[in-house]
């Protein structure tokens, strides 16, 4: 069976975990490896501050707390996304307003956001699907015009760019995921990127149970105390050690995935030219990170048959999000603004192909051959 995903393991991860346990004797959060990971992220992305977090879900929750989003507020996002994008704001009592996606990138349609803005709108949450950027210039322009926060769900967008800027650094806050299904992993984990330094101190406080412990550790105060409402959003240093092994080898992981992505794209292009399937689109000005390779079948029926055919041939291809507005909680906590022209239709056509660090050229070739066979 060719699995859909295999968590990356490059080689130094366990050595660093051992170092955390045996040498550093530091297992809790904010140890030496957490520091290395944050510095790596700050250097690579150019963000003012990167905080290592227990998950992307929690990073988004932290952003919702930092922006003081509360009951009665509205937050605009696509319906074609993971539940965490919405959960973070629903937990604060906000209403989620879903806007249709663009069929080319599966990202929120920037031209439909403005009409969804009301007096109660507080934030826009673009989701960079497959690590391909949303149209950020337009989104930032709307945010400035209506005084809204932009919180980027860049869970899939680590090391992708939009007009030269790293995803997650363009909006006020950016949320990364290091879940085992993402390009760089620590099992469960994430990061919050903060553009404006004025939010850093409060972010550190909320992340550390509402205490000013981060300041204490830096020697800026002589004892720490409870100063705000907070939670516990810092991962243990063993997990950070594992992640550091991956970040250190990020280019190697990136190149390996990109080879597979480009090979899929080359081998499947003839089928797309014949109009049988559609392939991912990367708009001009965007660079992506080969997080995902997907194809689109004609409709739900054809996709179901394709996934079944691939499964019978030992290939695990999978569909993706069921639009949130059609889920029970989506109906309870959200509403769809405007018409669902593409969200449901396009989501039903999409199938993701195996993609992971270490996927072999012969395997990609075999998968492409089987897809061609299906369409014969
Ligand atoms: C993976 C993912 C998340 C959640 O990440 P966790 O680290 O598992 O919390 C959120 N949004 C998107 C778009 C994702 O792909």
Description of the molecule:
- The protein is of the alpha/beta class.
- It has 2 domains: 13-247, Aspartate Aminotransferase, domain 2 (3-Layer(aba) Sandwich), CATH 3.40.640.10; 250-375, Aspartate Aminotransferase, domain 1.
- It is 38% helix and 14% strand.
- It contains 13 helices and 13 strands.
- The chain has helices at 13-24, 32-45, 56-66, 83-90, 136-146, 200-207, 213-217, 237-248, 250-273, 300-312, 328-333, 343-347, 361-375; strands spanning 49-53, 74-78, 95-99, 121-124, 149-153, 161-162, 165-166, 173-177, 190-194, 286-287, 293-296, 334-336, 350-353.
- The strands form 3 sheets. Strands 1-9-8-5-4-2-3-12 form an 8-stranded mixed β-sheet, with helices on both faces. A 3-stranded antiparallel β-sheet has the order 7-6-10, with no helix packed on it. Strands 11-13 form a two-stranded antiparallel ribbon.
- Strand 2, helix 4 (83-90) and strand 3 form a beta-alpha-beta unit.
- Helix 3 (56-66) crosses helix 6 and helix 9 (250-273) packs parallel to helix 13.
- It is globular.
- The protein starts with 12 loop residues before the first helix and ends with a helix.
- The mean pLDDT is 97.
- The structure holds pyridoxal-5'-phosphate.
- Pyridoxal-5'-phosphate binds next to helix 3 and helix 4.
């Amino acid at each position: 069976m060719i699995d859909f995903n295999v968590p990356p393991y490059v080689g130094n991860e366990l050595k660093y975990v051992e170092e955390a346990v045996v040498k550093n004797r530091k297992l809790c959060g904010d140890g030496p490896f957490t520091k290395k990971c944050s510095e790596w992220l700050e250097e690579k992305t150019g963000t003012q501050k990167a905080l290592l977090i227990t998950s992307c879900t929690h990073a988004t929750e932290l952003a919702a707390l930092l922006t003081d989003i509360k009951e009665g507020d509205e937050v605009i996002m696509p319906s074609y996304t993971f539940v965490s994008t919405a959960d973070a704001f629903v937990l604060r009592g906000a209403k989620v307003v879903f806007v249709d996606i663009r069929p080319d990138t599966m990202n929120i349609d920037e031209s439909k956001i403005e009409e969804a803005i009301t007096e109660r709108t507080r934030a826009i949450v673009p989701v960079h699907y497959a690590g391909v950027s949303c149209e950020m210039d337009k989104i930032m322009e709307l945010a400035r015009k209506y005084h809204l926060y932009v919180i980027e769900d860049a869970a899939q967008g680590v090391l992708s760019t939009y007009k030269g800027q790293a995803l997650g650094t363009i909006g006020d806050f950016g949320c990364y995921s290091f879940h085992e299904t993402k390009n760089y992993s620590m099992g469960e984990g994430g990061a919050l990127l903060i553009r404006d330094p004025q939010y850093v101190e409060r972010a550190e406080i909320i992340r550390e149970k509402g205490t000013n412990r981060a300041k204490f550790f830096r020697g800026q105060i002589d004892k720490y105390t409870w100063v705000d409402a907070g939670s516990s959003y810092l991962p243990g240093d063993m997990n950070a050690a594992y992640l550091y092994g991956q970040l250190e080898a990020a280019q190697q992981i990136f190149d390996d995935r990109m080879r597979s992505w480009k090979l899929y794209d080359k081998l499947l292009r003839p089928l797309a030219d014949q109009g049988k399937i559609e392939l991912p689109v990367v708009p001009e000005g965007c660079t992506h990170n080969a997080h995902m390779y997907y194809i689109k079948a004609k409709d739900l029926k054809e996709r179901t048959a394709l996934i079944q055919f691939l499964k019978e041939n030992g290939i695990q291809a999978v569909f993706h999000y069921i639009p949130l507005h059609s889920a029970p909680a989506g109906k309870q906590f959200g509403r769809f603004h405007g018409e669902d022209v593409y969200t449901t239709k396009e989501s039903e056509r999409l199938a993701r192909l195996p993609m992971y660090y270490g996927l072999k050229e012969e395997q990609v070739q075999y998968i492409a051959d089987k897809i061609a066979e299906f369409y014969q």
